[in-house]
Description:
There is one protein chain. By secondary structure, this protein is mainly beta. The protein has one domain: Jelly Rolls, CATH 2.60.120. It has one helix and eleven strands. The protein has a five-stranded antiparallel beta sheet. Strands 3-9-5-6 form a four-stranded antiparallel beta sheet, with no helix packed on it. Strands 2-10 form a two-stranded antiparallel ribbon.
Amino acid sequence: MQFAQKIFFYLIIIGISACKSGNYYQKYEDIKLLDWKASKPTTFAVEIKETNPPLAIVAGFRYLPMIRHQALKFKLSIQSPSGKSVEQDYTVPIRNAQGEHLGSTMGEMTDLEQAINTSYQFLETGTYKFTLTQAMGEEDIAGIIEVGLILRKKK
């Protein structure tokens, strides 16, 4: 596939995912050199304007299908406006038992969104800081294009 076609498909994927309704917040951050480093966490600052209703927290990953792992392990830290922090470890499978990708693959990119908390209750309004840190047990995970955070309204 030619470089221009790859860029075109990449922009289509971004456009489609940005149009999904029901998202309170959605943002992806580029991973420099497609190499997700444990020493370089990805942080999102999100303004929460009301504490009800609860929101679903979704982790988003865009990666090259050649990635060698079956799952992605990461830590999510949430810091409230008053400075209280909670942190939890997560493992998101990226392949099924047959080795097929669980996300949508288009060309040379796979897009995967995984709900990691379906009903997160914010206790105060203000700016929350969400930090995703790669926790695979290796410094670098090659093939990660973007890491994202989505807060979704419950249906």
